[in-house]
């Protein structure tokens, strides 16, 4: 079933907001981790403890990116999977 212009607009806004949220998350990640790295290097000695928050938050950032760009509503991967399922169901229905 084709989408109405309003549906397309709503989906486009939702996808744009999700991507913008990921970009803002990335900026915060870079700025905060740069500060943490500087603190660990210059204020608290040379112990490499700053790698732990970087890895933990980095994993969260990667998962956020996967949810936005690969699995999010209207993403290419999800749309291809839905299309394949539609085609398989259609073939099954045509055989019956």
Automatic annotation (TrEMBL):
It holds the Pfam family 2TM. Keywords: Membrane, Transmembrane, Transmembrane helix. InterPro entries: 2TM_dom. Residues 11-85 form the 2TM domain. It comes from the Bacteria. The chain crosses the membrane at residues 20-42, 54-77. This is 2TM domain-containing protein. It comes from Acidovorax benzenivorans.
């Amino acid at each position: 079933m084709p989408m109405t212009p309003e549906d397309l607009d709503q989906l486009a806004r939702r996808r744009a907001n999700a991507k913008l949220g990921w970009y803002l998350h990335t900026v915060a990640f870079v700025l905060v981790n740069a500060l943490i790295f500087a603190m660990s290097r210059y204020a608290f000695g040379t112990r490499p403890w700053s790698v732990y928050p970087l890895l933990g938050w980095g994993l969260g950032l990667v998962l956020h990116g996967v949810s936005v760009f690969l699995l999010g509503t209207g993403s290419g991967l999800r749309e291809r999977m839905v299309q394949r399922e539609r085609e398989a169901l259609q073939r099954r229905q045509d055989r019956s």
